[in-house]
Specification:
The protein is built from 18 helices and 10 strands. By secondary structure, it is an alpha+beta fold. It has 4 domains: 1-47; 50-218, GAF domain (Beta-Lactamase); 241-302 and 424-548, Hypothetical protein af1432 (Orthogonal Bundle); 314-405. The model has no long low-confidence stretch (mean pLDDT 83).
Length: 551
């Protein structure tokens, strides 16, 4: 004793008491260590460490608690209906492997006739849910241990005691098997059966392993569901327009290509690097950047001509023009009919035909002009506006009413200087960026993805404040938002499937982006890297037509 105090005058009793105290002290130390290790597992679960490392920790502690020489942790593969080795330890053989490092064959859960495999002890535990505690695998007749015996013979080992425990999730489904081999009697190291206390400890640790597996599985399933939802929304928006399908996927692909080049670049971006979380923010923001278009009317998204709404109004104008021509023909016929009984009026009849033919020719010429202006993808010239103004002033007297050649709405649409959208329609289209951010802000994004709404909503902003909807400037635009803006513009310029314009060649698209960079509208450094690295060529080879490849 530390104070050399005696408990009794009898030396033998003192020795017994001292030995008891020493054993109790060791026992308490062991319990303290076990509690500490269980606490470590709890902390590790809470911090979300790598699942393979956690499971290896579980097996290590399970072996220590039960003084087992070896152990195996199997995971259930429902697809292949096997038990797969996840972690395998053997102290005597100096084996400590996990995951892909294990090259042992899986344990089949069913035989060739699809009947449960009850001959293998681990498979038996899976099917029955029972805990199996075997004193000696060489003497038991209940299970087939030929594989174990071959393993022993090959490595000069002797498996003896074994305990096999099912690992259950929160729905009481067996998701794995914990197997421990050869309990040791310390300090002699002789092999003994696993005690009931060992079994209780192993069951507790199997439960901990189940918690880890369930937690990680749920996290992976939720992440997969989230990714599937994001992609489904992106596909839905792309499918909304028959003309721009694939736009979102292409913008996302191009954004990530640019971001990867930034991370690899030793020249333009020498010290800056996007973190994995920032890369995720960019990817998801790119997939969601057009979410606001869900509310944009289809006929505006798909407007391929100046007069198109739900249908192309040029068809109504064509019908009206046919009516005007019929009216001219009718008027000519009525005038000629009044002259049929006057033989001296033959020359007048010929004059009437000439006038009629001239008016019909004018109508046909005017309609050709309207059709050309409606379908043109180019900027209108002054002569086009003069022709439209002249046509708009005309009307035709039909059935006692004056019918105007063009309605106010038709004239407004035909007078669109460039493209197919009126100012009001362009405002509706532009509103999708603002609506995108508002919609995405309604979602409970985790902290590491919190910037997704602002990145997605800023894909039409410019560094000089000339963009929309918020007219943000360079100081308010993240690197991800700048990348997304460039990718969106380049895809729009070069896309071969836009109904309202012809696709540009690579050189044309490059010239526009370079000019926008020089003018301070887009990030000049990103544009420089984009073209210097050949990212535009890599993208073009996958998505552009041959005639566009002029670089």
């Amino acid at each position: 004793m530390a104070d050399n105090k005696k408990f009794s005058k009898n030396p033998r009793i003192n020795i017994v008491i001292e030995n008891f105290i020493d054993e109790l002290s060791l026992h308490l130390q062991e319990q303290a260590r076990e509690i500490s290790e269980l606490t470590a597992i709890g902390k590790a679960i809470g911090t979300g460490k790598n699942i393979n490392n956690l499971l290896e920790m579980i097996l290590t502690i399970a072996r220590r608690f039960t003084k087992a020489d070896g152990g195996t942790l199997y995971l259930v593969d429902q697809t292949s209906q096997n038990l797969d080795f996840n972690v395998i330890h053997n102290e005597s053989l100096n084996i400590k492997k996990g995951g892909s490092a294990i090259d042992l064959p899986s344990v089949p859960l069913y035989d060739d006739n699809h009947a449960p495999n009850l001959s293998n002890v681990s498979s038996y535990v899976f099917h029955t849910g029972e805990i199996v505690n075997i004193k000696n695998v060489y003497t038991t007749k209940k299970f087939d241990f030929e594989g174990t015996k071959k393993f022993d013979a090959a490595l000069h080992y002797k498996s003896q005691s074994m305990i096999v425990i099912p690992m259950r999730n929160h729905e009481d489904e067996i998701i794995g098997i914990l197997q421990l081999i050869n309990a040791k009697d310390l300090p002699s190291n002789s092999i003994i059966p696993f005690s009931s206390e060992d079994q209780e400890k192993a069951v507790a640790l199997a439960s901990q392993a189940s918690v880890i597996l369930t937690q990680q599985t749920l996290i992976l399933e939720m992440k997969a569901l989230f990714e599937a939802f994001i992609n489904a929304i992106a596909v839905l928006i792309d499918e909304k327009s028959k003309h721009t399908g694939g736009h979102i996927q292409r913008v996302t692909e191009l954004s990530m290509m640019i971001a990867q080049k930034i991370n690899q670049d030793p020249t333009v971006f020498k010290k800056f690097c996007l973190s994995p979380d920032q890369m995720d923010e960019l990817r998801i923001a790119a997939l969601m950047h057009d979410t606001g278009k869900i509310s944009t009317p289809d006929h505006i998204i798909d407007k391929s001509s100046r007069l198109e709404t739900v249908h192309d109004k040029i068809e109504l104008i064509e019908t009206r023009w046919e009516l005007f021509k019929t009216q001219q023909k009718l008027m000519a016929a009525q005038t000629k009919l009044a002259l049929f009984d006057q033989t001296e009026k033959q020359m007048e009849l010929a004059r009437i035909d000439t006038i009629y033919n001239e008016k019909i020719q004018v109508l046909e010429t005017e309609f050709e002009t309207l059709s050309f202006i409606n379908a043109s993808k180019k900027r209108l010239e002054e002569e086009h506006f003069d022709a439209l103004a002249a046509i708009n002033k005309k009307s035709c007297h039909v059935s006692g009413k004056d019918v105007p050649y063009l309605t106010e709405n038709e004239f407004e649409n035909l007078c669109i200087l460039e493209g197919t959208l009126t100012a009001a329609e362009r405002d509706i289209i532009n509103n999708h960026a603002d609506l995108t951010e508002k919609m995405l802000n309604q979602l409970p994004w985790p902290k590491k993805l919190a910037h997704i709404p602002s990145i997605a909503g800023a894909h039409h902003e410019k560094l000089d404040g000339s963009g929309y909807p918020l007219h943000l400037t360079k100081e308010n635009l993240t690197i991800q938002a700048r990348i997304l803006a460039i990718a969106d513009i380049f895809e729009a310029l070069s896309a071969p499937d836009r109904p309202y314009k012809s696709p540009m060649t690579l050189s044309q698209a490059e010239a526009i982006l370079q000019r926008m960079g020089e003018q301070g509208m887009l990030d000049k450094d990103i544009i420089t890297l984009f073209f210097r690295s050949g990212t535009h060529l890599e993208y073009a080879q996958k998505h552009l037509s041959d005639f566009q490849m002029d670089l």
